[in-house]
UniProtKB/TrEMBL annotation:
Protein name per the record: BTB domain-containing protein
BTB domain sequence ranges: 105-257
Gene source species: Cirrhinus mrigala
Record-linked SUPFAM superfamilies: P-loop containing nucleoside triphosphate hydrolases, POZ domain
Cross-referenced InterPro entries: BTB/POZ_dom, P-loop_NTPase, SKP1/BTB/POZ_sf
Length: 315
């Protein structure tokens, strides 16, 4: 085994080369680094040493002296492997409990002017393109308020679940969405307009009225801290909205839920077309098909979380 005192630092090698009056090179037989440099420059040194001979003087005129060795640049490390664990099966660890006990909540959704729902941006943004666009604008607005750092904010998503829906006939027919969960960057200028007490949202549809930063008391720790406050459209009712929120967290919809049409209305506002499809399946007595939609939901969420982590979005 090699001992620590047997390893010579590069400074020692340079000192010896300086004493001998020769160039200094480092090599690695394992990585093949520097081997060609040593041979090429040894040949140069040998040829230059013969320049004083009359026969070689004209032939060796263009030979360079031994060149300095370029520093070794280690290869770029591979990107970190991001592993998203599967959704937990136990009730205590299920994402749905975060709605009942919103620990570390960072957004407050205000309904009917006084009803508050605490939630988490990463859950909402990775399940709904509308929330993704909304919170990304909030991030950009915060960045504009600070000193410029030269780093551009991440690109917004055009839509996670965009697909067309057919007209309602005698049989409910709401189409599902097919998406691989990738984030597509598009231009997002002109989304926000100046508003009193916050920013009015004019181009993100009817789901949101305004967004602003406020100091809010945490519902779990009761500690006052700044959060993002979003005022929702007045047509959004608390009961159906909680059902939609549970879907955004868990990807599931109880087939015994009441007021399914209002749930579909909120899903339409938020462009969560898979939820609309689940409502249609329940109304058409085909609730068994919702299991596949839930599986696809978790696959897309995994891809979106990976991409958000890779881009540093919301972190």
């Amino acid at each position: 085994p090699i001992k620590a005192n047997e390893i010579l630092p590069p400074e020692k090698g340079r000192e010896v080369a300086k004493e001998l009056g020769v160039p200094y090179y480092e090599t690695s037989v394992v990585a093949q680094f520097g081997v060609k440099d040593v041979f090429d420059n040894a040949i140069r040194a040998a040829l230059i040493s013969r320049r004083h001979l009359q026969f070689w003087k004209s032939h060796l005129r263009d030979v360079q002296r031994p060149l300095l060795q370029a520093p070794f640049l280690p290869p770029k490390p591979p990107p970190p492997v991001i592993v998203i664990p599967p959704p937990p099966s136990t009730t205590e660890e299920h994402p749905g409990r975060l709605l009942e006990e919103p620990l570390c909540a960072d957004v407050v959704l205000v309904l009917q002017e006084n009803q508050q729902v605490f939630a988490h941006k990463v859950y909402l943004a990775t399940a709904s393109s509308k929330f993704y666009d909304l919170f990304l604008q909030d991030v950009k607005a915060e960045a504009d308020c600070k000193q410029p750092t030269g780093r551009e904010p991440p690109a917004r998503a055009a839509s996670f679940d965009m697909c067309e829906s057919s007209d309602e006939e005698s049989r409910v027919n709401l189409r599902a969405c097919i998406s691989d969960g990738t984030l597509i960057g598009t231009d997002s200028d002109g989304i926000l307009e100046g508003g009193r007490g916050g920013r009015l949202l004019s181009s993100l549809g009817r789901a949101f009225v305004s967004i602003r930063r406020e100091t809010v008391q945490d519902p779990v720790t009761f500690i006052t801290r700044p959060m993002t406050v979003v005022h929702m459209d007045p047509s959004v009712l608390l009961g159906p909205f909680r059902v939609v929120m549970r879907y955004l967290y868990t990807g599931q919809l109880d087939e015994h839920e009441k007021d399914l049409m209002h749930i579909a209305h909120i899903a339409e506002l938020l462009e969560v077309f898979d939820l609309r499809m689940m409502v249609a399946n329940i109304l058409n007595n085909e609730a068994f098909m919702n299991q596949e939609i839930t599986k696809a939901f978790h696959v897309r969420r995994t891809n979106r979380v990976k991409e958000c982590l890779a881009k540093g979005t919301f972190s």
